[in-house]
Specification:
Order of helices and strands of chain A: EHHEEHH
Order of helices and strands of chain B: EHHEHHHEHEHHEHHH
Largest sheet of chain B: 5 strands, parallel
Strand content of chain A: 15-25%
Shape of chain B: globular
Number of strands of chain B: 5
Number of helices of chain A: 4
Strand content of chain B: 5-15%
Radius of gyration of chain A: 24 Å
Largest sheet of chain A: 3 strands, mixed
Helix content of chain B: 55-70%
Largest interface: A-B, 37 and 47 residues
Strand order of the largest sheet of chain B: 3-2-1-4-5
Radius of gyration of chain B: 18 Å
Oligomer: heterodimer
Helix content of chain A: 55-70%
CATH topology of the largest domain in chain B: Rossmann fold
CATH class of the largest domain in chain B: Alpha Beta
Strand order of the largest sheet of chain A: 1-2-3
CATH superfamily of the largest domain in chain B: 5'-nuclease
Number of helices of chain B: 11
Distance between the termini of chain B: 25 Å
């Protein structure tokens, strides 16, 4: 059976977080709770266990790597008119759809 | 906020010029983390096959293409699509994109495809999903951020009920839980 547990999620007002700070720290660290902190109805802060923080940081770093990669490869299209690129994308997508149709109808 | 990026946007990200809406969208997603992206196997397959068409093969380096496709999986949430949508979009190729948004419970599809955009009112009426151009999404995102700050700063003030209320009362803004809460606060 699946032994993985769903993370405990909680929403708290910022004033309640302030009043119960020690308890909140304990809940996040030991019970691995994720707490959404709200002020005037808006989420202003998230409290997550250190392991989750690491995941968030890695995820953000991965996104930055994609941005750098896109920056590097977009140079291949320098000087190419925007209309040409859009036309080629549309053409390619219609071809992809026709291939997809052929493949699925042949099954 | 999580959205669906159509395959043409995911391909266009590679070709984006400085100061273009696609470039701004890219920054909002990858640098500012203003939204997250969900993707179905169908959309990923569309991106893969498009990038393997002769035009893109001739322009893009093999390793860069592979790396992009691989990393794209890592930074998006995979959606398993079980819903079948028929004749929602202008072209049947876009119906699986609407199905992706339905199964992911998402309210925004961003696309550069004009016929798809033209069906936006019908799709919104039927599924409450907004089909937006990158420009329209960026405008909404800016409004949303601006008014979030406004709601936070003036939640108890009647001054909120000027232009802000008019904008927030547009049907698409009522999809945001935070906005509805903001309006309740303003009452």
């Amino acid at each position: 059976m699946d032994s993985m547990q769903e993370p405990i999620k909680q929403t708290m007002k910022s004033s309640a977080v302030r009043d119960h700070w020690s308890e909140v720290v304990n809940d996040v660290f030991t019970k691995k709770k994720t707490i959404r902190v709200k002020k005037s109805g808006l989420t202003v802060l998230g409290l997550v266990p250190p392991e989750d923080l690491q995941l968030i940081q890695e995820f953000k770093a991965e996104k930055l790597r994609v941005e750098n990669l896109l920056d590097k490869i977009s140079t291949a299209f320098e000087g190419v008119p925007e209309e040409e690129i859009q036309r080629e994308i549309e053409k390619a997508q219609l071809e992809v759809w026709e291939e997809y149709q052929r493949n699925t109808s042949g099954k | 906020m999580k959205v669906i990026l159509d395959a043409n946007i995911l391909v266009s990200l590679k070709t984006a010029r400085k100061a273009s809406p696609i470039q701004e969208l890219r920054q909002l997603w990858l640098i500012k983390n203003a939204f997250q992206v969900a993707m179905s196997d169908y959309i990923h397959e569309e991106v893969v096959r498009t990038l393997y068409k002769p035009y893109f093969l001739s322009k893009l380096d093999h390793d860069a293409r592979i790396e992009y496709l691989w990393r794209l999986r890592k930074i998006t949430t995979r959606v398993e699509v079980t819903t079948t949508v028929v004749e929602a979009a202008a072209h049947p190729k876009d119906d699986p994109i609407v199905a992706t948004a339905i199964d992911a419970h998402l309210k925004h599809i961003i696309t550069g495809d004009k016929p798809f955009q033209r069906k936006a009112p019908h799709i919104f009426e039927t599924y409450e999903i907004s089909v937006l151009t990158p420009e329209a999404f960026i405008d909404e995102e800016k409004d949303f951020r601006g008014f979030s700050v406004l709601l936070y700063a003036h939640h108890s003030s009647l001054s909120l009920c000027g232009r802000a209320c008019q904008v927030l009362l547009r049907p698409r803004y009522l999809l945001y839980e935070v906005t509805v809460r903001g309006l309740r606060n303003a009452e």
